[in-house]
Every structure is written in structure tokens, then in C-alpha cells.
Amino acid sequence: DTGMVQDSTHEEIISNLRSNLTQDVPSYMIPAVFIPVGNFPLSATGKVDRRQLRAIGESMDLAAFAKFNAAQNETHIPLTLREKQLRRLWCSVLKIDESLIAVDDNFLQKAGDSNAAMKLVTVARGEGLSLSIANVLKYPRLQDMAQVVETLENSQIHEIMPFELLSNHVDLNQALREAAALCNVQVDRIQDMFPCTPLQEGLISLSAKREGDYIMQYMLELRLECDIERLDEAWAAVVAKTPILRTRIVNITGQGLVQVVLDEQWTTLPTQGISLSQAKNQKHEF
Questions:
Q1: Residues 132, 121: contact at Cβ < 8 Å?
Q2: Predicted local distance difference test score (pLDDT) of residue 286
Q3: pLDDT at 259
């Protein structure tokens, strides 16, 4: 008999199996669900018939998998209000019944992938919960996720104000004047300044030694029917909404390399009457 079975003995075996696997292999290598069968189907040569085993799994829908998984977890532990709220959100995203989710269940093992994680974050925010995709993936167990949500929700997030990340030893007015001169703009055009990351500093240093190694340029050929005016307006809107596209890196006395965010408009460079190769090699003053 190769039919699926489920009893208390199997649940105990599976519980011990999960516990041992957790100690020996990464979480992503632990099966999402274990399906007990009466006997392994055998081929004519006496080997395990993997095709029949695969057919057993393929015959089950998501709800059936969830039912097996729920039976293999601690369904008897009462849920907190936050856990109940999260369980309801899980069900709305995964399209399964609440009775199939226990406090120890794993979102990823309930067929929750990265897309489902993004949906979960969206619906959670709709209910005033602070939840990130990173936390969904890092704390996939219902109980753990509920604790992270509460921690994030109760913590006060400090809003970093412009220029706040600069060193306290730096004279802000002097730094602004120096940055404005290096960027060839008025001081009031500078919206923010903050230190470069170590990676950025390293790449800048390497670029100075080997010009062009860490500079990337994309050139796209537009279709003839492309509305250039609308494209220009669209890209100007993107630049206005994306500070990194208005950021320059300069060296400030007493601070070192900093990122300078400017309030500047998108500029279209005249390139009519020249070839693509000529435009690519053409240098422009900013």
C-alpha cells in the first residue's frame, strides 16, 4: 500500500526528523512537508520508483500540503493577538484556510516565495504593521515574525535630517561653500551631504588609478516613433524623484569623500548631426 497515511507515530518521527535536520543543514534544505506512505513503491528491478513518488506529490494541491504540514507542527499552542493577525494575512496571501497554519509554521514552507513576501508586506502595511521583505525571509516562522513586527512597530524610527551624518568636527557652512565650489553650483542648490561608504571610497580610489575601469555607460537606440518630448519629461520626473541621480562625490576638508545631493534639472545634451560612436566619445563640461 503506497497510499498516504498520517498518525501520531508518524508525527513524532517527523518532529524528530525536523529537529535533527535543523541542526545539520541550512533551513532552505529542509523539506517543506513530509508525506508518510505505507510503503515505498518499487520498480521491476526492486528500486524505489521515483516516478510513482512524484505522482503522489503531484496529486496533492496546496491545501493538502498545508494540511499535512499543519499536522506536523504544534497546532495546540494558543496564538497571541498579533500571531492571529499575521496568520490571517498569511492566509489572504497564500489562499489557504487559517486552520492549516500553526504558531510554529514557516511562511516559506507554506509555498510562500519572494512574490508572496512582497504581497504580505503590502497587506501588513495596510493594517499599520511595520514589516519588511527582509524580515519575512529572515523570520519566516509565524511566532518569530510576530515578535519582529511588534518590535519594529513599538520602536521609534529616527528620521535623519539633511547634513546630520557629517562629522561634528566639520564646519557646515565652510563645507557647503567648498562643495558648492567643487560642484560649480550655488550653495542653496545643495540639498544634502553625507559620507561615502567604504566601498564607494575604494572604487573612487581605484578609478583614479585606472581611469574608466569602474565607469559604466549605457547607450540605447530609440525607435523612430518615440516621442522625444514625452521621454524627456518622463526622465526629468525620474531624476527629480531619485536623489542618487542628482548626486556627485567630492572631497571635503576634514571629512573626506562625501556625496552631495543637488537640486538640479535634467539636462539634454545636443547631439544632432553626429553618429552614435561620435556621441559616445564626445566629452561634455558639467
A1: yes
A2: 47
A3: 97
Q: Which three cell numbers stand for residue 215?
A: 565607469
- Rounded CA-CA distance 11/73 in Å is 8
Grid cell of 23 as nine digits: 541542526
3-state secondary structure of 32: coil
Residues 6+ apart with CB under 8 A from 175: 166, 193, 252, 253, 254, 255, 258
The secondary structure of residue 30, as a DSSP letter, is: S
At 141, list the grid cell.
Answer: 516562522
Domains and CATH numbers, the chain: 1-60 (3.30.300.30), 76-157 (1.10.1200.10), 172-281 (no CATH)
| CA distances to 88, 109, 131 from 32, in Å | 20, 4, 23
Q: Residue written as cell 510562500? A: 112
Distances (CA, A) of 52 to 6, 56, 57, 133, 195: 19, 6, 9, 37, 60
At 176, the pLDDT band (50, 70, 90 cuts) reads very high
Question: Each residue of 17-72: pLDDT tens digit?
Answer: 877 877 777 666 777 677 777 788 888 888 888 888 888 877 776 666 666 655 55
10-24, 86-100, 242-256: which has the minimum mean pLDDT? 10-24
Under 8 Å between Cβ of 37 and 4: yes
**Residue (of 161, 160, 156, 152) closest to 133 by Cα position:** 152
